């Protein structure tokens, strides 16, 4: 990635994450519930039998109740395990949120080693993706590691990003050779159908 592009992304990431971090926890929780309602009425999610979720961390849109709801209504849930050595996400099937997960890489909840149940891209119908900033066309700025871009590029699955409205920007710097746009972005106010789906 060109150094200029990396610096632009870093600056935007820092600005947006500072704003997101400043959200009152109660407001973050209420907005996350609105996003959850919209997510589970999205036709793609209704039709998905197996969904890959990110496990929320710090000020991200909260996915704990989403994951528990998905399991309760009979969906198969896949969550990532970070493979730092190979800079990729390993997939694991989740059966019980409270019993299977423990703090892993960077303190993010991941399946305990004895609870890892290997899964493959072929198992997944939809991917729920995190990120720092998004555009209405589906371009995203992640957290800088490229883990989710690699997963989306390799899996070729439909991606639904969850974000607060403050994370939606008119444009973000991106590299079409490396970055992968998402198909939908769901905020507390709307469901954005991105360019890839229009």
Topology of this structure?
Blueprint: H1 3-21, H2 25-39, H3 43-47, E1 50-52, H4 64-72, E2 76-83, E3 88-94, H5 97-100, E4 101-103, E5 109-111, E6 126-129, E7 133-134, E8 140-141, H6 147-155, E9 158-162, E10 184-186, E11 191-193
Parallel strand pairs: 1-2, 1-6, 6-9, 9-10
Antiparallel strand pairs: 2-3, 4-5, 7-8, 10-11
Condensed summary:
The protein is of the alpha/beta class.
- Percent of residues in helices comes to 25-40%
> What is the arithmetic mean of pLDDT?
94
Radius of gyration: 16 Å
Show unreliable segments: none
Class computed from helices, strands and strand pairing = alpha/beta
CATH superfamily label = NagB/RpiA/CoA transferase-like
Order of helices and strands: HHHEHEEHEEEEEHEEE
Task: State the name of the first-level CATH class.
Answer: Alpha Beta
CATH architecture: 3-Layer(aba) Sandwich
Count the beta strands. Answer: 11
CATH fold-level name: Rossmann fold
What is the strand content? Answer: 15-25%
- Beginning-to-end CA distance, first to last residue: 28 Å
């Amino acid at each position: 990635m060109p150094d200029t592009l990396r610096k632009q992304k870093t600056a935007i990431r820092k600005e947006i994450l500072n704003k997101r971090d400043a959200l009152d926890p109660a407001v973050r929780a209420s907005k996350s519930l609105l996003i959850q309602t919209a997510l589970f009425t999205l036709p793609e999610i209704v039709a998905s039998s197996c969904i890959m979720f990110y496990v929320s961390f710090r000020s991200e849109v909260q996915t704990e109740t989403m994951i528990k709801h998905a399991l309760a209504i009979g969906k198969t849930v896949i969550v990532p395990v970070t493979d730092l050595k190979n800079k990729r996400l390993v997939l694991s099937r989740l059966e019980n949120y409270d019993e299977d997960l423990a703090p892993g890489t960077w303190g993010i909840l991941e399946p305990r080693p004895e609870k890892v149940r290997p899964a493959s891209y072929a198992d997944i119908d939809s991917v729920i993706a995190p990120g720092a900033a998004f555009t209405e066309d589906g371009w995203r700025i992640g957290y800088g590691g490229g883990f989710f871009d690699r997963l989306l590029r390799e899996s070729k699955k439909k991606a639904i990003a969850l974000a607060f409205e403050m994370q939606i920007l008119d444009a973000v710097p991106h590299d079409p050779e490396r970055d992968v746009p998402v198909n939908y972005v769901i905020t507390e106010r709307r469901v954005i159908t991105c360019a890839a789906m229009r």
